[in-house]
Design goal:
The complex is a heterodimer of chains A (124) and B (620). By secondary structure, chain A is mostly helical. Chain A folds into two domains: 30 residues; 81 residues, Orthogonal Bundle (Cytochrome Bc1 Complex, Chain D, domain 2), CATH 1.10.760.10. Helices cover 54% and strands 0% of the residues of chain A. Chain A is built from five helices and no strands. The longest helix of chain A has 29 residues. The N terminus of chain A is likely disordered. Chain B is an alpha/beta fold. Chain B has three domains: 227 residues, Rossmann fold; 162 residues, Rossmann fold (3-Layer(aba) Sandwich); 194 residues, 3-Layer(aba) Sandwich (Rossmann fold). Chain B is built from 19 helices and 21 strands. In chain B, the strands form five sheets. A six-stranded parallel β-sheet of chain B has the order 4-3-5-6-8-7, with helices on both faces. Chain B has a six-stranded parallel β-sheet with strand order 13-12-11-14-15-16. The N terminus of chain B is likely disordered. At the A-B interface, helix 3 of A face helix 11, helix 12 and helix 17 of B.
């Protein structure tokens, strides 16, 4: 009686553990690259200079990066070895390649801003 | 001087005091007209530098019947016509405080209660930037001055005169007495004294005011002993108050000005660099006149309201690298290294007329090719006249072309800024350009004044608003120290109150939290103003710097918010403001909420109440 119960318990635990694993994979699968990129944009401090949507800081601090981003590869290459005032993110430890790809997806997903000519408040 | 005949309980004051008061009022009335004339002349001098022969105050000789030392000190201060005296109450100035209340009737000066000494001094800083005359401030000589010292340093760096009085107790020392109270701020004040007698006080107070108000203007300190304040002046003693005659600010030597004018007229591409050049509306108009006469570009560091923000000759600092002749007006830190090879650099500045050694607020040595040690605003009328005389008709025609070139650069810069402003226009958290633009829409047809650091909200107000009057902004702190903006804005709003101007404070959250008690002072004294928070929940500039440091060291950047963010918990600024008597709304996170909230807040301000909007913004 006792042995049967114990084996049942072990089986139950394995099943529950497997369910958790499958569940976790499902959750990961449900998280889009854009969503992960949005989080990574904050985690890896991109927002500090470029703003939460990559719209740029002051004109002489950091450029807008939510437009004209050519490819994920070119953006990643620039982040690894930038020019100008941007600090280098040389290593995977500093920012993984996957995070760079996700950030690229996030920036590409953002809706375009209106042109200043179409904003009455900027035309007074 | 109008003083109450009864105290607050309705009781008549003792007869002997009334007699004493009447005898003094006679003398004061006789001097009143002269005092008013003197104040007017001072204003004329400060704004135009034209005060030769200005009427000065008369000598007042007081025959004391029964008077306390601090009453006499008030008689001395009347000449300075202090509208307000900021105070953090303390035991060693009880005599002075009581004299302001009862001897002066709490009028000229009226006491303004600060809940921290740094508030008292920073308010005086902001007040001067609008009003062009100093406030008195009364703080504790030992512990109080230590609290206040940061604000004193800011005023020193920003060339702002403040008349600081310290309560101290040397004759009967206690555990808070200090041997040489002004010593701790001597490295960043212009003059100080610790008078030993009442006549010594009178001499030193008038001297201190004169020194403070002579350019380069700076804070001064008087340590006032408690025993001196509280002594009863022996009956019949004559005490003399020296007359105050304002100094004409130092203008440049005419021959040197003539030579400088020639350099400017002969230049192909002259540029004016302006920092603390204008001290008044007149100064602003002189700079416009000179720039337009020469069709010169103008680079403004907005430490003062030197030049209109939408003037087509306004340029960005990179233009220094293209000019063949640069004139730096009260801009001693503009180094020759920023100019192209062979370009000439000239300077008009009072910086070398007085400075201190210990705190290095001067930067690189300028290395000018031609330098006039004088006050720029006082020298500009001479320079304008010389340039006008030296400009031939053909030259005037030729300079129009370069004016058009500067105007085109200005147009391109403005359009680039607007494109930048539009990016992230509908974002939440809020785009700071959007906040500034929405606010401009609400205030542009009102008589407004930006009373915070003029580079607040990432410079968007300066880039988007139409600044064209001297009181439209108050410049920066001078020291770049955090904590200045909140109390300085309340001091400037206090100065704006009697003019009926709408005072606007674009307030960084980190700066705000240094001295949040400033809110209570504004509400208590019914100082109307609108504060709009730039609430990015961080010291973001430091986050940028530390992240950069980690990246350059190939280390973990994701941890670089540690020590620099102001969240968890998020501060509820609206609740804090309401608790101290302000109208407040927020946190505001969506752009559609901005305009309605601004309308409601401005209505509250126009009814006489201070109001705060907590806008949650992008980092920059």
């Amino acid at each position: 009686m006792y042995l049967i119960k114990k084996s049942q318990l072990v089986c139950s635990r394995i099943i529950i553990a497997l369910m958790f694993l499958v569940g976790a994979q499902s959750v990961h699968a449900q998280t889009t690259a854009e969503e992960r990129g949005k989080q990574d944009f904050v985690t890896y401090m991109c927002y500090g200079c470029h703003g939460f949507t990559g719209q740029g800081g002051q004109t002489d601090v950091a450029p807008r990066i939510n437009v004209d981003v050519h490819t994920a590869e070119s953006m990643a290459a620039y982040a690894r070895n930038p020019g100008g005032r941007m600090p280098p993110y040389h290593t995977e430890a500093q920012i993984p390649d996957q995070a760079l790809r996700d950030i690229y997806a996030y920036l590409k997903s953002l809706p375009p801003s209106p042109a200043w000519e179409d904003i009455p408040l900027l035309n007074d | 001087m109008d003083k109450p005949d009864k105290d607050k309980s309705g009781k008549s004051k003792p007869e002997e005091n009334s007699v004493d008061r009447r005898s003094f009022i006679k003398a004061a009335a006789a001097s009143g007209a002269a005092l008013a004339a003197g104040a007017h002349s001072l204003s004329a001098q400060v704004s135009g530098g034209t005060a030769a022969g200005a009427a000065a105050t008369e000598v007042i000789e007081i025959v004391s019947d029964r008077k306390h030392g601090s009453d006499f000190m008030m008689d001395v201060l009347k000449q300075m016509d202090f509208e307000f005296m900021t105070i953090n109450t303390h035991s060693d100035s009880a005599g002075l405080q009581e004299s302001v209340i009862n001897y002066m009737g709490n009028v000229n000066p009226e006491l303004i209660t600060g809940l921290h000494e740094e508030v008292c001094v920073a308010m005086a800083h902001g007040y001067y930037k609008i009003e062009g005359k100093p406030l008195a401030t009364l703080i504790y000589g030992s512990v109080g001055l230590q609290h206040a010292s940061m604000a004193v340093y800011s005023a020193f760096c920003d060339r702002v005169p403040i008349f600081i009085m310290l309560g101290n107790q040397r004759h009967n020392p206690n555990s808070r007495s200090v041997q040489d109270a002004p010593a701790m701020v001597r490295d960043f004040t212009k003059w100080d004294d610790s008078p030993l007698s009442l006549e010594h006080f009178a001499q030193s107070a008038v001297r201190a005011y004169s020194v403070a108000m002579t350019t380069p203007t700076m804070p001064v300190v008087l340590s006032v002993d408690k025993k001196l304040q509280e002594m009863i002046i022996p009956k019949g003693e004559k005490l003399r108050i020296p007359k105050y005659t304002p100094n004409t600010p130092p203008a440049g030597d005419p021959n040197a000005v003539r030579e400088l004018a020639k350099m400017l007229v002969d230049a192909e591409l002259p540029v004016l660099g302006v920092e603390r050049a204008a001290r008044s509306q007149a100064g602003l108009e002189y700079i416009i006149e000179l720039a337009e006469l020469l069709q010169a570009g103008v680079v403004d560091t907005i430490q003062r309201m030197n030049f209109p923000s939408r003037h087509p000759l306004l340029q960005e600092p990179s233009i220094f690298g293209e000019a063949d002749m640069v004139l730096a007006l009260e801009m001693p830190m503009l180094s020759h290294s920023r100019l192209k090879e062979g370009a000439k650099l000239a300077s008009i500045s009072g910086f070398d007329l007085f400075t201190r050694s210990n705190y290095w607020h001067f930067g690189d040595y300028q290395e000018p090719d031609f330098s006039i040690a004088a006050d720029a605003e006082a020298t500009l009328p001479l320079l304008i006249e010389e340039v006008r005389q030296q400009m031939s008709r053909s030259k005037r025609s030729a300079v129009r072309a370069r004016g058009a070139k500067f105007a085109e650069i200005n147009k391109q810069n403005r359009e680039r800024d607007k494109a930048f402003a539009a990016n992230g226009w509908n974002d939440s958290p809020l785009n700071t350009a959007r906040v500034a633009a929405e606010l401009w829409e609400q205030i542009k047809n009102k008589d407004w004044s930006l009373v915070s650091r003029s580079d607040g909200m990432s410079d968007w107000a300066w880039k988007l608003w139409d600044f064209n009057k001297y009181y439209h902004h108050i410049g920066q702190s001078g020291s770049v120290g955090v904590g200045y903006s909140n109390p300085a804005s309340v001091g400037a709003a206090l100065a704006n109150r009697k003019h009926g101007r709408l005072s606007i404070n674009l307030q960084n959250d980190g700066d705000f939290m240094f001295l949040p008690s400033t809110l209570w002072t504004a509400a208590h004294h019914k100082i109307p103003m609108l504060t709009v928070m730039h609430n990015n929940r961080a010291y973001n500039q430091e986050i940028m710097l530390i992240s950069r440091m980690a990246a350059l060291r190939d280390r973990d950047v994701s941890r670089c918010t540690i020590g620099s963010v102001i969240d968890n918990p998020n501060i509820d600024f609206a609740q804090m403001a309401r608790s101290m008597g302000w109208y407040a709304e927020g946190p505001i996170e969506h752009p559609s909420e901005l305009a309605p909230a601004m309308k409601r807040a401005i209505a509250a301000v126009e009814s006489g109440q201070p109001a705060l909007l907590d806008t949650v913004t992008h980092p920059n």
